[in-house]
Design brief:
The complex is a heterotetramer. Helix content of chain A is 21%, strand content 21%. Chain A is elongated and about 100 Å long. Chain A is α+β, with helices and mostly antiparallel strands. Chain A folds into 2 domains: 31 residues; 105 residues, Alpha-Beta Plaits. The longest helix of chain B is centred in the last third of the chain and has 12 residues. Chain B is 18% helix and 22% strand. Chain D is of the alpha+beta class. Chain D has one domain: Cytochrome-c3 Hydrogenase, chain B (Orthogonal Bundle). In chain D, the strands form 3 sheets. Chain D has a 3-stranded antiparallel beta sheet. Chain D has a 3-stranded antiparallel beta sheet with strand order 6-7-8. In chain D, strands 4-5 form a two-stranded antiparallel sheet. The radius of gyration of chain D is 23 Å and the shape is globular. The chains are: A alpha+beta, B alpha/beta, C mainly alpha, D alpha+beta.
């Protein structure tokens, strides 16, 4: 008999302690970040979308070899005199296959890095063409994408980087 | 008990089970001459305390992997209309003993004295047959179905040897080195 | 060798636009430890709390307004009667109009409760789970959320599955909601503030509350899919078996009060022991607490809420008996559930917490009108319903049945016996 | 229709079996798993798990990639706790290369794997609570898990697919500010585990739903070669960190958590107590974190290990994760087989589910804590 009542008491006590915990957290403020108005700034080492700076790139194609899923493609520039120049004719990153593993940034020999991960986690593409972002001679810093329907280069309509220009890493 | 004691005890019971040339790094590896020794060896090991069949797999020693077995669908790149050059050309390494054989590997673990032993059996690639251990170890059931699905090794005495991982419409056994991918409706 | 051409002065890369809100860089204020260290600095938190208090006072004020109007009920009736005789209309018409007004008021209590309690449950469950709940609808802490949901559900397409039996499928929600509204007739909203003063009030309420199980089973069977069939059968077994302990746990209250009439039960609880403790039935030494708990648990089971929400267990039956409903028909089920929760809270307040009476005899408390006390007690009991729902896991079907037949029912009988002893020796 | 024809038309009343598909889209199958259940009333007569929906052929992919590139592949197996995936591949490759990670790298590896185990068990506690019907523990568990993911984001930049543990060491060293934040997390987290116990583990309804349900005896567990909390829940004392210590686990003291009868509650409680052990380990690692470089010298950019075979196994969150690597001396591994614990933990369902009720199916399926990325590879 006593065992029965002590069991009932234990069950009731366990239920009440559970309720007190939920009450405790009800009175604490919520920890929600309201996304569109309050955006989180990722930490400094965050691996967001790749960005590329054609000025400092010496087209050594180390990043092409380092990329596991073969996303990066580039072509060495040739000066008018037909001599190879340490510049890039064009450079393209296929964001559809990039798996944000930072191997390309680590293999890039230039100082500061010419391909690096920005802090942008809002990587959104309106179409599959937009996934392949290209850099050429006079393209803006963000680069353009080639739209097969209209056969011309366009600015990326999707979410532009959360930061206009991410912090450079030496 | 150290590897040598285990090997000695095993060779006393099964003289034909020889220590393989290529040992799995710091574990004992034993190879069996023919597929009928497998069940007795497994039963003896189970009695000896190796009652945990940790892993069951196969390796195809035919040669370097055939690149046509991979699906390469890069997004359209305006500068490379015909698609990027494949990255890693798998080349044969000179002097490595490629041989047209499927090597089946079993790993038994004895939890009491924390020992592990690898048992190997070489099986011809075309008529790859081996006795099924699902009678002794229940976990062999799914692992053997996986090796059948990916390598095409038929395990005699298996309750229901059917495909487990690859989709039904996929022909051929993907993990064989000479596997060539046949275009199906999911390839653009 | 010409001097190396100075590199063209490149425009410095613009500084990244980092995110500040109220001066706080969102990167460093991320961990709960920081946010709980100084809660009031959070932008939305302080006025959120004030707002919540404001809304509760607003609702109480609204209730008070209706309560105030009904105080002059008799004068209003006399006025109408005089007007009718002046115009030569028969008194029957006056009675009809008078009943129509009362029905309208009770119907609106249920509908406003639908809006209020759904929103309140979402806010309470959110803050229990340290998230925020509806915030954007209506600008200020999502007060218009339920109204928007209502409109959305009204505009949603009303799908009747092909395999369904159309008549039964359409009729089921009606049969679930109708008894619930009818059951509100004798319910007390303050001291002698009820739509109809029945001397068999308790019996009437339990009789009507039992009818809606037919609607649930009809919904389960008519939807024509396996999961809702299972859900409907489980609901039938659960609601019917929890009717018993719910009814028997009220018997001690009726024995003490001496009558089934709700207002007599409420008046029997007026007065104070030793001048301080109110003579509520919940404070009767053992009988009160046991009866209160059994009635509370049985009411939670009656309204299919966790830990007894077997019929619509998401992780098993996907949606239970109202899987195939959408649009207004689905919202009628939803409204019925919250109407039953309101009914149960009002009954708990009337039976055990002395509906309408103030807990303390001193001046400031007794001046507060009785409807405010009744409404706040009911709201507290509804909070307990919500609190239980967001804390406890779900029982299995057979455990639920064992718990009812082997624990609740025997103890409610024992409780009646002890109440009999009280009557014999103590309350003579 | 005359009444005789009508009565003739009604088949003899027999209770036939209902075929119900549990999944592949179902709220509690934790991924793309379809279990074909044949039920009679509420009792299950036959259960056929059908997997392969998430099969991406990582073993075939590995044969065409370099060793550094395969480490990126390993993140995608058990995506809930992917640090041990990286670790097990790196251990096997280091055995082939004959390279030894530096002591500081070993300590960091142990710390990251234990933190990842806590994060994975937190996800288990949350989703298992929802399976049994309690919604609130899920939010609390994810609030703590976010803090661990922040720590990972601070040190290696990713929150799920870390690619942090590399051949010969670790990607990058931790900053003193990171260790301070980690201490702050540990202090915050210890009382939280007791709260989960009060809120869920010792909750009578939860115990009624899980104790005595889905009993797996020790012999069955060994025969089905389960591993991790599923094996230890049935009372078998086998933990790869104790049986086959790697990365210096032998000089941290922690005890192997063992359950009693192999019920769902035992497996659940093994994981909750394991979180406490992991906190102990992380504290010990933090206490004596050795100095020195984090990446061993001598690992080539494109490693070509000598021909040979290696097998390494690690106590991952879900069980005994192993990698069998065969190298023919070429650029990419000749054969990589992944011994996935979830694949074997799932196999036991087809025998255990027969005769159970529907709500117990969800309890048993949840308690084995499988991740489909690792089952299908």
């Amino acid at each position: 008999m006593i065992g029965y009542f002590s069991k009932v008491y234990k069950v009731a006590a366990a239920l009440v302690t559970g309720h007190l915990i939920t009450l405790k957290y009800m009175l604490k403020p919520s920890i929600t970040i309201h996304y569109p108005t309050e955006k989180l700034t990722p930490y400094e080492r965050f691996r967001g979308a790749l960005t590329f700076d054609a000025a400092t790139c010496i087209s050594c194609s180390m990043c092409v070899k380092a990329c596991p899923s073969n996303c990066i493609a580039l072509e060495n520039a040739v000066s008018e005199a037909g001599k190879k120049v340490a510049k890039v004719a064009w450079y393209s990153i296929d964001f559809g296959k990039c798996n944000f593993c930072r191997l390309c940034e680590e293999s890039c020999p230039t100082k500061p890095k010419s391909v690096w991960h920005s802090l942008d986690y809002e990587v959104v593409f309106a179409s599959r063409d937009e996934m392949v972002r290209c850099w050429k001679k006079d393209f803006p810093f963000i680069g353009k994408y080639f739209d097969r329907r209209t056969q011309d280069f366009k600015d990326p309509e999707g979410q532009v980087c959360i930061h206009e220009v991410p912090p450079r890493r030496s | 008990m150290t590897q040598d004691e285990l090997l000695a005890k095993m060779q006393k019971k099964f003289p034909k089970a020889a220590k393989t040339a290529v040992q799995v790094k710091d574990y004992l590896t034993v190879s069996l001459p023919s597929k009928d020794d497998l069940i007795p060896v497994a039963a003896w090991l189970k009695k000896e305390g190796f009652d945990y069949l940790d892993m069951l797999t196969a390796v195809d020693y035919l040669g370097p992997v055939d690149m046509k077995g991979y699906i390469r669908q890069a997004n359209f790149n305006v500068f490379l209309p015909e698609g990027a050059a494949p990255q890693a050309e798998s080349a044969a390494v000179a002097g490595y003993a490629y041989r047209p054989v499927l090597e089946l590997v079993w790993a038994f673990v004895s939890m009491k004295d924390k020992a592990r032993i690898f048992v190997k059996l070489e099986v011809p690639r075309d008529a790859a047959r081996a006795p099924s251990l699902s009678g002794l170890f229940k976990s062999a059931d799914w692992q053997e179905r996986e090796v059948f699905d990916l390598f095409g090794v038929v395990y005699d005495g298996h309750p229901n040897l059917t495909k487990i991982l690859t989709p039904d419409f996929l022909q051929g056994h993907p993990l064989r080195k000479d596997y060539v991918h046949i275009k199906d409706r999911y390839d653009e | 060798m010409t001097a190396p051409k100075p590199a063209p002065a490149k425009a410095p890369l613009p500084e990244p636009v980092l995110n500040r809100k109220n001066g706080i860089l969102m990167a460093d204020r991320r961990w709960p430890t920081d946010q709980w260290a100084h809660p009031w600095s959070l932008p939305g938190y302080r006025n959120g709390a004030l707002m919540l208090a404001g809304i509760i006072l607003g609702i109480l004020g609204g209730g008070a307004l209706i309560g105030e109007l009904s105080k002059w009920g008799d004068k209003l009736y006399a006025l109408m009667a005089a007007f009718a005789t002046a115009k030569g209309i028969s008194t029957v018409a006056v009675d009809a109009v008078w009943v129509a007004i009362k029905v309208l008021i009770v119907l609106h209590v249920i509908l406003v409760n639908g809006l209020w309690s759904i929103w309140w449950e979402r806010k309470i469950s959110a803050h229990i789970q340290s998230r925020v709940g509806p915030t954007y609808a209506g600008g200020f802490h999502g007060w218009a959320q339920t109204i928007c949901d209502g409109i959305k559900l009204f505009l949603k397409e009303d799908i009747t599955p092909a395999a369904a039996d159309h008549w039964v499928h359409a009729l089921a929600p009606a049969i679930v909601i109708a008894p619930c509204i009818a059951a509100f007739a004798p319910v007390l909203f303050g001291t002698d503030l009820a739509a109809a003063r029945l001397d068999v009030g308790t019996l009437y309420v339990f009789a009507f509350a039992g009818i809606s199980v037919i609607g649930v089973v009809m919904a389960g069977w008519a939807s024509g899919n396996k999961y809702s069939l299972l859900g409907g059968l489980r609901a039938a077994a659960q609601i019917v078996s929890y009717e018993l302990p719910r009814g028997f746990s009220v018997v001690p209250v009726i024995m003490f009060a001496g009558s089934l009439d709700l207002s007599v039960i409420a008046d029997a609880q007026s007065g104070y022991w030793w001048g301080v403790a109110p003579r509520w039935f919940v404070f009767y030494p053992v009988v009160g607490q046991v009866a209160f708990l059994i009635f509370l648990i049985a009411s939670i089971a009656e309204t299919n809420r966790t830990p007894f929400d077997i019929p619509e267990a998401e992780s098993e039956l996907v949606g239970g008996f109202h899987t195939e409903y959408s649009g207004m028909k689905w919202s009628v089920f939803f409204l019925a559930e919250y109407a039953y929760v309101l009914l149960a809270s009002f009954l708990l307040a009337t039976f055990f917490l002395g509906g309408g009476g103030s807990p303390l005899p001193w001046a400031p408390f007794t001046l507060v009108p009785s409807w405010i006390w009744m409404l706040s007690k009911a709201m507290f009991m509804m909070f307990v319903f919500l609190w239980v729902r967001w804390t406890l896991p779900r029982l299995r079907v057979d455990q639920l049945m064992d718990f009812n037949w082997k624990f609740l029912l025997p103890w409610s009988f024992a409780n009646i016996a002890v109440a009999g002893l009280y009557l014999a020796f103590w309350l003579k | 229709m005359t009444s005789e024809a009508a009565t003739a038309a009604i088949p003899a009343l027999r209770s036939d079996q209902l075929f119900v598909n549990l999944g592949p889209q179902h709220p509690s199958t934790h991924g793309v798993l379809r279990v074909g259940l044949t039920i009679e009333g509420e009792v299950i007569v036959k259960a056929v798990p059908d997997i392969g929906y998430l099969h991406r052929g990582t073993e075939k992919l590995a044969e065409a990639r370099g060793y550094h590139h395969c480490v990126v592949l390993t993140d995608r197996w058990d995506y809930v706790a992917s640090m041990p995936n990286n670790l097990v591949f790196c251990l096997a490759a280091e055995k082939l290369l004959g390279v030894k990670a530096t002591p500081r790298a070993d300590a960091l590896r142990v710390m990251m794997c234990e933190l990842n185990r806590i994060a994975s068990h937190l996800l288990f506690v949350g989703t298992y609570g929802i399976d049994i019907g309690a919604f609130t523990p899920f939010l609390y568990a994810f609030r703590e898990r976010e803090m661990i993911l922040d720590l990972f984001e601070m040190v290696c930049g990713a929150r799920l697919t870390y690619n942090y543990i590399r051949l010969g060491g670790v990607m990058v060293d931790v900053t003193p500010e990171w260790t301070a934040k980690l201490k702050e997390f540990l202090e915050y987290f210890k009382p939280k585990i007791d709260e989960y116990d009060q809120l869920l583990s010792y909750n009578p309804i939860f115990m009624a739903r899980t104790q005595g349900v889905g009993l797996i005896t020790a012999a069955e567990a060994v025969s089905w070669s389960l591993s991790g909390p599923n094996l230890r829940g049935s009372g078998v004392v086998y933990d790869a960190r104790k049986a086959d210590p790697y990365c210096g686990y032998e000089n941290y003291d922690f005890d192997v958590v063992v359950g009693k009868e192999g019920s769902c509650w035992d497996r659940y409680f093994c994981r909750v107590t394991e979180m406490r052990q992991s906190v102990r380990i992380v504290e010990q690692v933090l206490a004596k974190l050795p100095e020195g470089p984090v990446m061993a010298a001598g690992v080539a950019k494109i490693p070509k290990p000598a021909p040979g075979e290696a097998y390494a196994h690690v106590e991952a969150a879900r069980g005994d994760l192993g990698v069998h690597l065969v190298s023919d001396g070429g650029v990419s591994p000749f054969r990589m087989h992944v011994r996935a614990p979830s694949f074997l933990n799932l196999a036991i369902l087809q025998e255990k589910l027969v005769g159970m009720k529907i709500s117990d199916v969800i309890a048993l399926l949840g308690s084995t804590d499988i991740v489909l990325g690792e089952v299908d590879r």
